[in-house]
Amino acid sequence: MPLAFLAPVLVIQGTFLFAPLINTFVLSFTNVRTIGGGRFIGVDNFARLAEDPAFHAAVGRSLLYVAVVVPTITVLAICLGLLLNTLMRGTTLVRTIVFSPMVMPMAIVAILFEWLLRSDGMINQMLIAVNAINQPIRFLSDPSIAIFSLMTVTLWKGVALYTLILLAALQNVSQELEEAAELDGASWLRRTVSVTLPQIRGTTLLIAILAAISSIRTFTEPYVMTGGGPGRSTETVVLYLFRQGVSPGTDAGYASAISVFLFALVVVVSLLRWLASRRVAV
Predict the structure, then answer these.
(1) Which of 86, 160, 178, 238 has its CA 20 to 30 A from that of 42?
(2) DSSP readout, 181-205?
(3) How far apart are CA 158 and CA 239, in angstroms?
(4) What pTM was computed for the model?
(5) Environment class of residue 271 by beta-carbon count within 10 Å: exposed (0-12), middle (13-18) or buried (19+)?
(6) CB neighbours of residue 223 within 10 Å
């Protein structure tokens, strides 16, 4: 009977998850094209990865994305979680504003911010209207700042989910310890640093790793907002994979090797999270 109930889910998972995953591993050792054909070539695709400067640059941008987004979104989630966990007037309104991005698809968010951040967009028009700037800021067309503009979109969309996770953890913080610290004369800041945050350390680590995995897989923001440009300044590793295997490229074997690399990277990050969580628990 349990297998009968699990069978539909197992069939769906096997068809749309495990079979494509196995197929990707197989294709990574071939020179197959997206439109068919191909033969076994061993590890040539992975040797090509090691020598591909465009791939190295894309990985570097993705790692930069992780390095900036993860600590920023973690700090924002902690601050917003602490704010929303307090019983004060207006908290319900603030929660509605903070959590509203969760219901919007990332593609819609990217289109919205592309309109806001372009040279003739609303943000530049507002800055010019208040005489804050003389010329439009090229948020999406300047190679030096375009990727950071995309990070802003990622932060705006993602912080709501991680704040919600942290808020749930804060609801389970021991009130007895909080009250004892307050009776000892500890200030709110002291109680937060010494009592509250240590109790949600495991959850904080969890959202940091989830944010890291999500940042590594960033695709929609650069694809919709900049197309990887200007030049290749916002081309992430997932967008590079897409270009090699789908549009405009048809090198499915090489794209599969990139997918295997990404899979291994996510597994390593997940393993580090598991090991770190065990240390926190101990």
Answers:
(1) 238
(2) HHHTT--HHHHIIIIIHHHTHHHHH
(3) 19
(4) 0.87
(5) exposed
(6) 20
